[in-house]
Amino acid sequence: MGHRKYELYSMDWDLKEELRDCLVAAAPYGGPIALLRNPWRKEKAASVRPVLEIYSASGMPLASLLWKSGPVVSLGWSAEEELLCVQEDGVVLVYGLHGDFRRHFSMGNEVLQNRVLDARIFHTEFGSGVAILTGAHRFTLSANVGDLKLRRMPEVPGLQSAPSCWTTLCQDRVAHILLAVGPDLYLLDHAACSSVTPPGLAPGVSSFLQMAVSFTYRHLALFTDTGYIWMGTASLKEKLCEFNCNIRAPPKQMVWCSRPRSKERAVVVAWERRLMVVGDAPESIQFVLDEDSYLVPELDGVRIFSRSTHEFLHEVPVASEEIFKIASMAPGALLLEAQKEYEKESQKADEYLREIQELGQLTQAVQQCIEAAGHEHRPDMQKSLLRAASFGKCFLDRFPPDSFVRMCQDLRVLNAVRDYHIGIPLTYSQYKQLTIQVLLDRLVLRRLYPLAIQICEYLRLPEVQGVSRILAHWACYKVQQKDVSDEDVARAINQKLGDTPGVSYSDIAARAYGCGRTELAIKLLEYEPRSGEQVPLLLKMKRSKLALSKAIESGDTDLVFTVLLHLKNELNRGDFFMTLRNQPMALSLYRQFCKYQELETLKDLYNQDDNHQELGSFHIRASYAAEERIEGRVAALQTAADAFYKAKNEFAAKATEDQMRLLRLQRRLEDELGGRFLDLSLHDTVTTLILGGHNKRAEQLARDFRIPDKRLWWLKLTALADLEDWEELEKFSKSKKSPIGYLPFVEICMKQHNKYEAKKYTSRVGPEQKVKALLLVGDVAQAADVAIEHRNEAELSLVLSHCTGATDGATADKIQRARAQAQKK
Amino acid sequence: MAFPHRPDAPELPDFSMLKRLARDQLIYLLEQLPGKKDLFIEADLMSPLDRIANVSILKQHEVDKLYKVESKPAVSSSEQLCFLVRPRIKNMRYIANLVNADKLAGRTRKYKVIFSPQKFYACEMVLEEEGIYGDVSCDEWAFSLLPLDVDLLSMELPEFFRDYFLEGDQRWINTVAQALHLLSTLYGPFPNCYGIGRCAKMSYELWRKLEDEEDGETKGRRPEIGHIFLLDRDMDFVTALCSQVVYEGLVDDTFRIKCGSVDFGPEVTSSDKSLKVLLNAEDKNGRALLLCCRYTGEAGRYKLQFCVRRRGMDIKQMKNFVSQELKGLKQEHRLLSLHIGACESIMKKKTKQDFQELIKTEHALLEGFNIRESTSYIEEHIDRQVSPIESLRLMCLLSITENGLIPKDYRSLKTQYLQSYGPEHLLTFSNLRRAGLLTEQAPGDTLTAVESKVSKLVTDKAAGKITDAFSSLAKRSNFRAISKKLNLIPRVDGEYDLKVPRDMAYVFSGAYVPLSCRIIEQVLERRSWQGLDEVVRLLNCSELAFTDMTKEDKASSESLRLILVVFLGGCTFSEISALRFLGREKGYRFIFLTTAVTNSARLMEAMSEVKA
What membrane topology was assigned to this protein in its record (chain B) (predicted)? Predict the structure, then answer.
C-alpha cells in the first residue's frame, strides 16, 4: 500500500491557542479554515469573548470578528464557501468568506426547545445540508440550506442517551442518518428507523466509538471499542476489509483516504499524537504527530494541518508509483532516466530510449510522465517530468500534442493558485472535479480579480464566460466601497469595463441600488448601452420620468407602455398628463390605447392640453358613433362647435353648426315626408327631395344652405335624368343660362341612351365643346363641319378618329381635304 | 420580358427561405397545442397565411375547423381554440368575449393566442383587464416578411401608414428593425446604407442597435446585398397619389391586388364566377406568362392616348405573340385569357373621356400650369359626386404640388366636399392636415426661416412641444422647387414612344419621373447625399438624411449591384416598375421591401373617417 505525505505550507498564522481549544472547520477543495476561539467560555468579559477567525489554507488571515451571538455548537462550510455556524438554540448564522454576515435561519421549534447537542454540515449533490441532534436525542435535518426544508427524523425506539457516534449518509439522493448506540446500529430515513448490522463484523463489540463516510458517500468505516476497524460499503451490504489496531482509546478523528477509481481502501485514524493509515494490508502506516492536528477529508486524500504545518496525505497515484518506485523498469521511469542522461550528454540516454522503443512503449512512457507531472506538488518535479515527456515525444511520429499542452496549462494555473498568498492547495484531480469555472468563482469570492483575469486570458476563455464575468463581479464589489465617492466609483468601473462584451451595467447598478446607492446606480446606468435594460431598475428606484425618457430612447414601444402604466399608478392624473405632454411619442402611444380602451381619458387628455381642435373632433365622432338620440347628437355637435371656436377654427365650427341645422331639418323631413333623410349629406338630401318630387323643398334647402349654382345644376340634372323626367329637364334647362354649360345635358341624356333628348341640347353647347357634343350624339358629319370651321387640328383628329367604316368615308375625305388646304395656307 | 435584363445583372438572393422559415415556425407553434384544435384567423392575415401554409398543411397539424375573426361570435365545439391575430386591441376584445362567454357557461377549454408579427404589451394589458390573461397562452409568430415576387418583400402591414404618419405611433418601427435584422442574418450585412426620413432614421438606428447587441453573427459574413436604402413615404406623397398606368398598377387601382393575387370578377372572367389569380408566378412558365402580361400592360397604357382606335390591333398583336411564344403552354392560355379580359375591362373603364380629363388634370398639376382650371375640374368632380376617394386624392395632389391650397380654395373645396360626401369628413380633413397631405398656404415668404427652425425641432427626439399646426407647417412640400431641382418633368420633344422607354417617367406616360425613385437614383449615383443638400433641405430633412458605409470592402462587385429599397409606409407598383427599369438601364437589381403595397386609394382610405 503506497501512501505519501508532503508539506503544502508552513502555516503563517500566529495561533495563540491550541487547535483543541477551538471549534474548527475547514472547507474541502483546499478551502478556507474557520476557527472559533473560546467557544465554551460563558463569561461575559470582552477579553474572553469568543472570536471567529477565518484563514486561507496557507494561514493567511481573511477575517476576524468578535462573536456576539449565542453559543456555537458546530461550524461548517457550505459548497459555496459560506460559513454556517450552528448555535445551541438551533439558529444557523451564515457568514461570507470575509466574515461578512449574510443571513440566518432557524432549524425549527423542536430544536429551539431541546437545544442542539451536536450538528454536522454535509454536502450532497443538491447543495449543503445541516443535520442536528437535539437534547431529546432526535434528529432534524435539511438537505439543502439554500432551499430550506426541515425534516424531522423518526424516533429511535428506546434511546435514552446520546448515541456514541453518528453520521449522515446519502443514498439514492436521500439523506439518511446512521447512529450507534452501544452494540447496535440504527439507520434513520424519512419514514422509519431500522436496525442494521454490518456483514462480517468481528464479535465482541460492545460499542462503536467513531464512524467515517467517504467523500463520495460510497464507503463506511466503523471504529469499535475493541480497537477493531470495519470497512465496507455505505449501504452496509458488503464488507471490504477489516483491521485490528489494538488501540482502544477513542480516536479524535477518522477519515477515508482514497482516490477516485482506485482499488485501494484506506482510512486515516488520528489520536492525540499518532496518525495511522490502515487498509486491507496487514500492516498499517504510522506517523507521529508532533502537534495537535486536524484532518480534512478531500476527494483524493486527506489534508492535515496543525499550528505550524499543513500537509497532504494521499495514496501514491499509479503513474507516480511506477516512475518513482525504486529500480522501476516501467517505461515512464526509463524515459525520465533517459532524459536525465541526455542532459548529461551521456550515451546511456540512447540505451534507455532504445529499451523503451524495443518494447514499443514510448507512447505509454510519455503519457505516464505527463500524468505523473500532474500529481506532483513541487514545480521542479513537474518540470523534470514534463521535460522527459517532451523529450520522449520527439521520437514519436504521431503523438497528439494536446494532452501535453493542456497539462502544462493546468499546472501553471494550479501552481498559481497554490501559491502561498493565494492559498488554494488544489490537487490535479480536485481541480478537474471542481472545473475552471468554479475555481474562477472561488478566486472572485476571495476578491482575487487580477489573478482570475490573468487565468482567463491565459486559458483564452471566451470573454463572456471569463474576463467579462470577473470584471462584472469586481464592479459589484467596487460599488460596495462606501468610502469612495459615487463619481469615482462610476468612473473607475467604466475605465476598467469600457465596452467589454457581456458586461451588464444594469446588473452592477442593481447591486449599487441594493447597497442603497441610488445616485451611483443612476450614474452606472448611463453607461448601459441598451436603454431597455435601464428601464426596469429605474422604475424600481422610483425614477419613473427618467425611465420614461430611456424607454423612449430605446424605441421599444412596449417598454414605453410599461413605464406609462407604472406612471399612471404612481402619479396623480394631472401630473401624469403633464408628463405625457412633454413626451409626444409616449403621448401618441397612450392616445392610441385610449382610443380603443378608455375614451373618457382621451377627452381628459385633450382637455388638459387645451387641444380644442382634437376635442372638437372627439365630439364630432361622438355625435355619430356614441350618441343615438337626435338631441344627444345635436348637443355633441354643439360642444364640438364650441371647441372649434376656441381652437380658432371657424371653418370647422361653421361646418358643424350647418350640420346641426341639417340634422334638425332632416329629422323634420322624416317626420313630415317619411322616408330616410338622417345622415345623408346635404347633396344627397336635396337629391332625395327632388327624386321624391318635392322640388319646392329642394329649392328652399338649397337657398338655406347656400348651395352654389353649379352644384345645384349638376344635382338637378342628374336627379331629373335618373327620373327620366325629360320634360322637367328641358324646363329646367331653359330656366336660366346654365352655369355648367350644356354639354353635361348631352352627356347625361346619352348615358340614359336617349339620343332624341340629347340632340335637343347640342345646339346650345358652347362652340369649344360643340364638336364633342356632336360626336356624342353620333353626328360625325356635322362635327366635321364645325371642326373645319374652327380650323382646329386637335378637333379634326378627334373627329377623324370617330370616322368608322364606309358610312363616314365621305366625312373623312372632307377632313383630309380641309387639312390639306390648311397646310397650303 | 419586354425589356430583358442586361446579361451582367446580378442574381437575386433566394427569398423563398423566408417562407420556409415562417412555415416551420407556424407549425412549431401549432404543435405547441397538441391535439385537435379550431383555428380563428384574422381576416387581414388570411391571404398572407395562404401564401405560407395552405389548408392541407394546417390540417396535417391537427387544425380542425377554420374561422374568421369578425364581429359576430363563432360557434366552435372544439376543446382547443387557437387564435391567429394581429396585435390589435379590437381582437383582444373579441377573444375576451369568447372566453368570458365560456366561463359563464361553465365551460373550460384551452386557448392560445398567436400574435403576428409580434405581441404588444397593450394587448396583454387588455387581456388582463378583461380578466382572462391567466386563461390564454400567448405566443408570437415572427412572420414579418412575405415574398410576393422574386424581388418584392411585403410586411403586409397596411396600418403602418396610418399608425405612424397620422397617429405618430411608433410601435411598428421595432418590427421593421427586426425584419431588417432577419435579412442581414440570412443574407449577410449591408455594407452601404442610405436613408431619408424620420422613420427611416429611427428604424435604421434601432436595427443597428439590434445588430450590435447580437454581435458576431453577421460579422465576417460576405454581404450578398451591397446597398440598403430606407425611405419614408412622406418624402414623396405625390407619386403615390398619381393614377397608375403601368399594368400591375392599373390592375391594382382597378381590381385591388391583395397579397399578390387579384380577384377577377364576372366582367373579366366572362362567366358568372369570380376567379382568384396570382399576379406573379415563380416558376418558369409563370415567368413567360408575366412577360406577356407586362407586354399587354405596355400596350394598355399606350392606349390611354389612342385607345379606341388601336385596341383591336394590340390585342391581336398580343394574341399573335401568345401563339408564337407560348406554344405548347396550353394551361397558360386560360390564365392569359383572364388577363386579356382584365385589360379589356380596364380599357372600358379608363378610355372614357373622364379618364383622359383626369390624367390631363393630373399632368397639369404635376407640371404646375393651368392651376385655376384644375381647381375647377376638382370642384366639378366633387359637385358631381364622382367618387369620394378620387376627389380627396385630387385635392391632396393639388395641395402638395402647390405647397398648400390658397385659403379661398381651401375653404370652398372643403365646403363642397362636406356637402357632397357628408359632414364626418371634417375629421378626414383634420387627419389630412395633420399628415401634411392637405394644407392651407401660409401667407408670405418669411416662412422659410421659421420652417428651418421648426424642422430642427422636429428632428430632436426629446423636443415635443410642437403643436399640430407647427408640425404640419414644417411639412411644406416644396414640390415645385424639388421638381425643378431634380428635373422630374422631362422635356419631351415630340411623342414619347412608350414602347421604347427612355427614363423612369415611362411609368407615368412620360410625364413625370417618380420623386422617390429619382432620389434613390441620385444617391446611388453619388454613393452619398453629397451635392443634394438643397433637395434634402427642401424635403425638410436636413437632419434626417444619412449615409453609412463600412470601410472593409468584402463585398463582391456582384453584390454591390444589388440594392434593397425599404419603403416605410408602402410603395406603389409604379415605383417598383420605375426602379426595375432603372435597374435594367444601369445593370443593378433592386429588391423591394415595403410595409405594404399601396396606391392612392389605400392612402386616402387610411386617412378617411368612415361612419362605423
Answer: Peripheral membrane protein
Strand order of the β-sheet with A253-256 is A253-256, A266-270, A274-279, A285-288
Residues 6+ away with beta carbon under 8 Å from B594: B152, B153, B154, B155, B566, B567, B570, B571
Q: Which residues, at least 6 apart from B596, have a Cβ–Cβ distance to it below 8 Å?
A: B154, B155, B156, B157, B158, B160, B161, B570, B602
Alpha carbons A62 and B193: distance in angstroms, whole number: 57
pLDDT digits (tens, 9 = 90+) for A17-47: 788 888 899 999 999 999 988 766 555 565 6
Q: What is the mean pLDDT of residues A63-70?
A: 88
Burial of A5 (0-12, 13-18, 19+ CB in 10 A): middle
The residue type found at A79 is A
| pLDDT at residue A806 is higher than 50 | yes
- Amino acid letter, residue A490: A
pLDDT at B350: 65
For position A781, what pLDDT does the model report? Answer: 80
Asked if the Cβ–Cβ distance from A588 to B461 is below 8 Å, we say no
Closest in A562, A658, A711 to B416, CB measured: A711
Long-range pairs for B581-586: beta carbons < 8 A, 24 or more residues apart = B581/B3, B581/B501, B581/B504, B581/B506, B581/B507, B582/B504, B582/B517, B582/B520, B582/B521, B583/B5, B583/B9, B584/B3, B584/B4, B584/B5, B584/B6, B584/B9
Q: In terms of pLDDT, which residue wins out, B455 or A763? A: A763
Q: What is the pLDDT of residue B597?
A: 93
Question: Which residues in chain B have their CB less than 8 angstroms from residue A501's CB?
Answer: 215
Instruction: Residue A592: list chain B partners with CB under 8 A.
Output: 163, 167, 169
Q: B540 with B532: CB under 8 angstroms?
A: no
- Mean pLDDT of the residues in chain A: 87
Asked if A310 contacts A13 with a C-beta cutoff of 8 angstroms, the reply is no
The answer to whether the CB atoms of A584 and B464 lie below 8 A apart is: yes
Dihedral Cα A694, A698, A704, A705, nearest 10 deg: 140
- Write down how long chain B is: 612
Asked if the Cβ–Cβ distance from B419 to A705 is below 8 Å, we say yes
CA nearest neighbour of A694 among A661, A672, A663: A672
Cell of B585: 438601364
SS3 of B219-277: CCCCCCCCEEEEEEHHHCHHHHHCCCCCHHHHHHHHHCEECCEEEECHHHHCCCCCEEE
Assess contact for B212 and A529: CB atoms under 8 A.
Answer: yes
- How far is CA B278 from each of CA B253, B333, B599, rounded to the nearest angstrom? 16, 15, 19
Q: How far apart are the first and last CA of chain B?
A: 45
User: Residue B25's pLDDT is what?
Assistant: 93
What are A525-541's pLDDT values in tens digits? 888 877 777 888 888 88
Q: Which cell numbers hold the place of A448?
A: 482575487
Q: What SS3 string covers A572-627? A: CHHHHHHHHHCCHHHHHHHHHHHHHHCHHHHHHHHHHHCCHHHHHHHHHHHHHHCC
Q: Does A506 touch chain B (CB under 8 A)?
A: no
Q: Three-state SS for A549?
A: helix
CB A269 within 8 A of CB A254: yes
What does pTM read for this prediction?
A: 0.72
On whether any CB of chain B is under 8 Å from the CB of A346, the answer is: no
User: Do A585 and B170 make contact, defined as CB atoms within 8 angstroms?
Assistant: yes
On chain B, the residues whose CB falls within 8 A of the CB of A589 are 169-171
Counting as low any pLDDT under 50, the low residues of chain B are: 1-3, 281-314, 445-474
Query: What's the grid cell of residue B284?
Result: 418558369
Q: Is A140 exposed, middle or buried (0-12, 13-18, 19+ CB in 10 A)?
A: buried
**Per-residue pLDDT tens over the stretch B205-239:** 989 888 877 765 556 678 888 899 999 999 999 99
